[in-house]
Amino acid sequence: MFTGIITDQGEIVALTPTVPGQLHRLRIACGYDRATIADGASIAANGICLTVVGTGEQGGRTWYEVDAGAETLAKTSAQHWAVGTRLNLERALKIGDELGGHLVTGHVDGIAKVTAREELEGMVRFELDAPRDLARFIATKGSVTLDGVSLTVNSVEDTRFSVLIIPHTLAVTTLSGWRTGSDVNLEIDLMARYAARLREAT
Q1: Would the pLDDT of 60 be above 80?
Q2: Around 151, how many Cα atoms within 13 Å sit in the side-chain half-sphere?
Q3: Gap between the Cα atoms of 76 and 95, Å rounded
Q4: Is 51:29 a contact under the CB 8 Å cutoff?
Q5: Which of 23, 64, 96, 99 is surrounded by the most beta carbons within 10 Å?
Q6: What is the distance between the alpha carbons of residues 44 and 87, in angstroms, rounded to a whole number?
Q7: Distance between CA 160 and CA 112 in Å, rounded?
């Protein structure tokens, strides 16, 4: 489990298609202490929970490796990742950690597309379009996870919704790089999913 509070920005420094179109081995450079990353640990990259399969150090930076499988490549923005891609990173939640965002599983539900970017005083307002089967779970003032970042929904109209990104979030995440047409990993709120399921069952 995660909280959607980004703790580092990583960069893909190597990408090897071990099985073309089915499995990619990624090496991600980060600012985490290598000694704290164990093989088998879970680290979310742009909201995708990936399992560490190796670690090392190069040029004074820690790196770790993960495998992105066919499902991840087919249903998330990982299909567009390349060497040099910057990623929002979050370590798995520990019992007793502060829950600063909301409960996030790291299981991306689909891809939302940025349809508009509005520059404001030190902030940016984004409008996005969600897949119709996921849009019903997105509500005004509710929570949503975009590229691993826990955000509050400002407005909703049909399949479109908007979020406002404050200066701190722009500074510590990759969201400042979003442009019209960008594909964004979307995870709907876990509570919204269960509420809808309970309503359907009654």
Answers
A1: yes
A2: 32
A3: 28
A4: no
A5: 64
A6: 9
A7: 9
